[in-house]
Design goal:
- This protein is an alpha/beta fold.
- The chain has 4 domains: about 80 residues, Signal recognition particle alu RNA binding heterodimer, srp9/1 (2-Layer Sandwich), CATH 3.30.720.210; about 170 residues, Rossmann fold; about 70 residues, Orthogonal Bundle (Helicase, Ruva Protein, domain 3); about 200 residues, Peptidase M41 (Methane Monooxygenase Hydroxylase, Chain G, domain 1, Up-down Bundle).
- The protein is built from 22 helices and 16 strands.
- A 6-stranded mixed beta sheet has the order 6-8-9-10-7-11, covered by helices on one side. A 5-stranded mixed beta sheet has the order 1-4-3-2-5. It has a 3-stranded antiparallel beta sheet with strand order 13-12-16.
- Helix 9 links the parallel strand 8 and strand 9.
- Helix 17 packs across helix 21.
- The longest helix has about 35 residues.
- The protein is elongated and about 150 Å long.
């Protein structure tokens, strides 16, 4: 679930810290306004101090007035001469009021002082006011710095640093007691994980009965599993059940471009959590800061390693009796530092894996409890069709089904809506505007019927639920949906080989009917190669190599990538063995389809006409054709042979 919802201001000092950036911003704005007003007043003061000059004259005109005795006084200012004419001159110029002056620019005239003395004119040099000039210069220097400070503070807040003075502030979202809104009732399909965490909840609620016997609260629990299985939801449920404050943040929240910021945030996080104990700290995607310091896993990052070291020190530094519990989640436990995983830090590893059949049914019930369903809905059938789906996938399917029901004008979700939503999530929506040519439709139809027919002809294959040649947005031009009759946790070698034959049957049908091949089998070839390689390198199902582990998983909970653990010569032999297994499967698919060519043609023609057929329709046509072929063969066997001489 999204950690951003339902969060409020936390207990303790959290609300005061959250208001500091806002108060600092208001202070800066007030300071800037006062500075601007001060500059305006100083400018007005300088204008008033320098007097009112309303007319500019040339230097020649100034000399003429001086020679004519029409100048009363002259003030030499910075950059100009301010000339006060005699009263008679003011009346002659038409101004008619005292205080009007002329001004002209400074001219390099070494004889000016003597001329003024000879004319009996009072003149003086302006004495600059150093105080105002100093203040003016100081403000002109400080304003750009303040502006830069404001911009940097805004940028750092955007990066999560909380401003210049709060760059090391922790970024945890704090949920008060009962504020997460999630309990164990909202988590389905993870009974084992809930059982492991129930003891932690009981310890937080009733610490006395554990302390009497000498038991200690585990310092930390690591939630491990594939994406979408509900690790964050489980952590919130623990906080909701324990009625304890919940500090939630991601591992990436500690990491910044500045060395030491992450360590500072770890310290502040634990200080605030201790003030609100008993409480829970949840760190999602802890591999962002907990990655091994070994260079093989990307070690050598000073900021991340300092943050990890601080986290290790803090986990050693608090007493379990204080009621402080650390929960963390990751999809990559293999890259975590061993110092983080040792007992005394993360004492428990809780596996949050993909739900089984019963778990998927429970998840579907949880997510559909507020959705209107009609009488046709069978959640068990949907759960069977979604083997390998996680909780987020199932929630998405329920929501897509509700949207489809509204789109079709119904007020309740039907089973057809649910199956369509399964297809939307797995292979995408139908592409209405992608129209295949007549020849391409035939090729795709025979390809898909080849898959389905081989499935029906093998006893170890899963039953066919649907065949379609309608293109989908995820790239499929058509597909066959197989739904198992029951949930399986083990696959026999015969079942895996049947799956291999089914994978290559589409290409085999193309070769038989059109005597050519297309690019449509790319995904089938990829799947067949993956299955065949796993048989040889992981499952020990090869006579040549026997029970030798030649590959090991490198990333169990993400893409499931494997790494070869053998020499180059052995790897070459593995490739040859993979090619042999796939060729045997292809030959078997060709043999099966050739033996049932009429059924292949009849079903393909029906699929071209209808575009989509159900598994029931497919099996009806198949049994009808098989019954007809059996009847024809019986009639031929019943006819007596014609011998020579008979009439």
């Amino acid at each position: 679930m999204d950690n951003n919802q339902n969060h409020g201001q936390g207990p303790g000092n959290g609300s005061n810290n959250n208001n500091r950036p806002q108060k600092n911003g208001q202070t800066v704005m007030v300071f800037l306004i006062v500075t601007v007003i001060t500059l305006i007043v100083m400018g007005a003061f300088n204008s008033f101090r320098r007097g009112i000059t309303n007319q500019e004259i040339t230097y020649n005109r100034f000399m003429e007035l001086l020679d004519a005795g029409q100048v009363e006084s002259v003030e030499i200012q910075s950059g100009q001469y301010v000339i006060t004419p005699s009263i008679e001159t003011q009346f002659l110029t038409g101004n008619g009021r005292h205080g009007v002056t002329f001004y002209t620019g400074i001219v390099d005239d070494p004889n000016l002082a003597q001329k003024l003395l000879d004319a009996g004119v009072d003149f003086k040099q302006e004495i600059p006011d150093m105080t105002s000039e100093f203040i003016y210069s100081l403000l002109m220097f400080l304003i750009p710095l303040i502006f830069i400070w404001v911009i940097m503070g805004f940028a750092l807040r955007k990066m999560g640093g909380g401003g210049v003075m709060g760059i090391g502030k922790n970024k945890a979202r704090v949920y008060a007691q009962k504020e997460t809104g999630v309990t164990f009732k909202d988590v389905a399909g993870q009974d084992e994980a809930k059982e492991s965490l129930q003891e932690v909840v009981d310890f937080l609620e009733n610490p006395g009965k554990y302390s009497e016997i000498g038991a200690k609260l585990p310092k930390g629990a690591l939630l491990v599993g594939p994406p979408g299985t509900g690790k964050t939801l489980l952590a919130k449920a623990v906080a909701g059940e324990a009625h304890a404050p919940f500090f939630s943040l991601s591992g990436s929240d500690f990491v910044e471009m500045f060395v030491g910021v992450g360590a500072s945030r770890v310290r502040e996080l634990f200080e605030e959590a201790k003030k609100n104990a008993p409480c829970i700290i949840f760190i999602d995607e802890i591999d962002a800061i907990g990655k091994s310091r070994d260079s093989r896993y990307g070690g050598g990052n000073d900021e991340r390693e300092q943050t990890l070291n601080q986290l290790l020190a803090e986990m050693d530094g608090f007493d379990t009796a204080s009621g402080l519990l650390i929960l963390a989640a990751t999809n990559r436990p293999e890259v975590l530092d061993q110092a983080l995983l040792r007992p005394g830090r993360f004492d428990r590893r809780v596996i949050v894996d993909k739900p089984d059949l019963k778990g998927r049914i429970d998840v579907l019930k949880v997510h559909s409890k507020n959705v209107h369903m009609d009488d046709t809905v069978d959640l068990e059938a949907i759960a069977l069709a979604t083997s390998g789906a996680v909780g987020s996938d199932l929630a998405n399917m329920i929501n897509e089904a509700a949207i489809l029901a509204i789109k079709n004008g119904r007020k309740a979700v039907s089973q057809a809506d649910l199956f369509e939503s399964v297809e939307v999530v797995l292979v995408g929506k139908e592409k209405k505007n992608k129209i295949l040519s007549k020849e391409e439709r035939r090729i795709v139809s025979y390809h898909e019927v080849g898959h389905a027919l081989v499935s029906a002809l093998q006893k170890d294959s899963e039953p066919v639920q649907k065949i379609t040649i309608v293109p989908r947005t995820m790239g499929a031009l058509g597909y066959v949906m197989n739904v198992p009759e029951e949930e399986k946790f083990l696959n026999t070698e015969s079942e895996i080989r049947a799956r291999l034959v089914e994978c290559v049957a589409g290409r085999a049908a193309e070769q038989i009917v059109f005597h050519s091949i297309t690019t449509g089998a790319a995904n089938d070839i990829e799947q067949a190669t993956k299955i065949a390689r796993a048989m040889i390198t992981q499952y020990g199902m090869s006579e040549k190599f026997g029970m030798v582990g030649l590959e090991s998983p490198a990333n169990q909970y993400l893409e499931g990538r494997t790494i070869l653990n053998c020499s180059d010569e052995t790897a070459a032999e593995v490739d040859k063995e993979v090619m042999r297994v796939i060729k045997e499967s292809y030959d078997k698919a060709v043999s099966l389809l050739m033996a049932h060519r009429e059924a292949l043609d009849r079903i393909a023609d029906f699929l071209i006409e209808k575009e989509t057929i159900t598994g029931k329709e497919f099996m009806e046509i198949f049994h009808r054709v098989e019954a007809k072929e059996t009847s024809d063969a019986s009639e031929e066997a019943a006819e007596p042979p014609v011998t020579e001489g008979e009439s």
